[in-house]
Amino acid sequence: MQKTAQHILLSILIGVNLSACRSDTSDSDDTSAPTTETAFDAASVWATLRNDFDLFYAYRDDRGFDADAYLDRVGTLVSAAPDRATFRRQLHRATYAFTDPHLGFGPAEDGDFNIIPTSSDLQIDHRAGQYYVADVRSDSAAYEAGIRPGWILNTADERPIQDLAAAVFTDLIDTPSDAQLDYAGTLLANGRRVGDRSLVFLTPEGETQRLDLANPREQARAVMARPAIETQRIATPDGSMIAVIRINNRLGDNDLITGFDAAMAEVMEADGLILDLRNTPSGGNSEVGRSIMGHFTDRVRPFQIHTIPSLEREFTVPRRFVEQVTPRSPNFDPFRTVVLGGHWTGSMGEGIVIGMDALGVHSIASDMGDLLGAMSNFSFADQTITLSIPTEALFHVDGTPREDFVADQSLTSADSDENAGDPALEAALIYLRDQ
C-alpha cells in the first residue's frame, strides 16, 4: 500500500521513540502465506517498497557497501517472484547484507532464521575462513552443553558452515565481507524458528564435539517467565556490600518503571551498584530507559542524540536533537556504579549503556546487539507484507554512533569465558573494589 511521505513522517515524529526490537518469544506471528493468490505484481510492489526503503532506512548508506548497486540487484531478483510468499522470503534474506537485526520483512515463517539477539544463544565471529564462537549466552542450551568462546563451528545440520554462510547471500553478494559472514554464521548457529539444532564444533584442544541443541526460542520464552528484576547482594573480602540489579528483557514493559524504583530503594545502603543489562536482547522504550537512568543523575543531563535522515533526504533540511534524562528518586552515586552490556543487550538496552556512560557511570561491555536506530513499521501489498525498519539514527552524546560504542572496559565476551566464568561481573567487582 502506497503511503505518503507526510503520513509516514507524522508516524515517525509522533509514534516512534526508541521502540523495542522485534520480540521472537511468542508464536503469534507464525502466519503462513496464503496457499493461493492472484495477480501478484512483484515488480510494482518492489517499486513502491524501494522508494520508501531509500527514503526512510536511516542506515542505508553506511553499511560498508554500495547500497544502490545492491538494491538494484535485489530488485532484479525479487521482481521475478511468482507469488507474495516467495517475494517476502527473498526480501527478508536480502536484509541480511545490512547486518541489522532491526531490519526485516514479515510475516515470519517457520523456516526463517531465529531473530537475533532475542532468540539466540551463540555469537559467531568469522576470522580467516573459520567461524569462532565469540560468546555464549548464560543459562542457555549452548552454555549448558559446554560450548565456550574460542570453539570453532564446523557444520550445521551436517553441512559445512562455510557453504551455508555463502548460501545466505547467493545471487545477492559475490564476496561477502567479514561482518556479513559474522552475521550469517550467527544466524546459522542459532537455527530456524522451528526445530532443534545439530551443530559440530572443534574445541581449542582439537576435539570434535557433536551437539544437538534446543531451539533458542525456548530460552527466550523462559526469560519472559522469570521476574522482570532480579537483585543480588555480594559481600566482598574487604567487607563492602555490592548490589547487582539484573533486568530480564522487560525494557518495553512500563510496569518496570515503578518496579525499578522499588528495587533502587532496597539497595541504597550498598557500597556499590552493578546494573546488569546483559539479558535485554529485545530492547524496549525510552520511557523505561530514562526512568532507569534518572536514578543516577542529580540534574538534567543529555543521554543520546537522534537524527532523522529521511528529512534531509527529502527536504535537504537535517533534523538532529538531543534526548535528556531528568533526576529520579532515590538517587545513587554514578561514580559508585557500573553498567554491564553484552551481545544480548539490544536496542534500548544499548541506549541505556551509552546513556549511563554519558552520566559518568563506568561501563563494561563487549560489542552489544548492534540493533540499529529507532524502529518504525510499514506495510505493502495491501498490508500483507510488513517491513520493520530503523528510521532514526542514534548516537552517544559525544557523537559516536551507538553501534560503534566502546565501553570503558571492553571485553571480547561478556556473558561467558573459556572457563565458564562470568567475565563482565568479575570485572565489575574488581573495578568497584579498586574504587
Automatic annotation (TrEMBL):
- Protein origin, superkingdom: Bacteria
Residues spanning the membrane: none
Q: Which InterPro entries match?
A: ClpP/crotonase-like_dom_sf, PDZ_sf
The name this protein carries in UniProt is Tail specific protease domain-containing protein
To which species is this protein native? Algimonas ampicilliniresistens
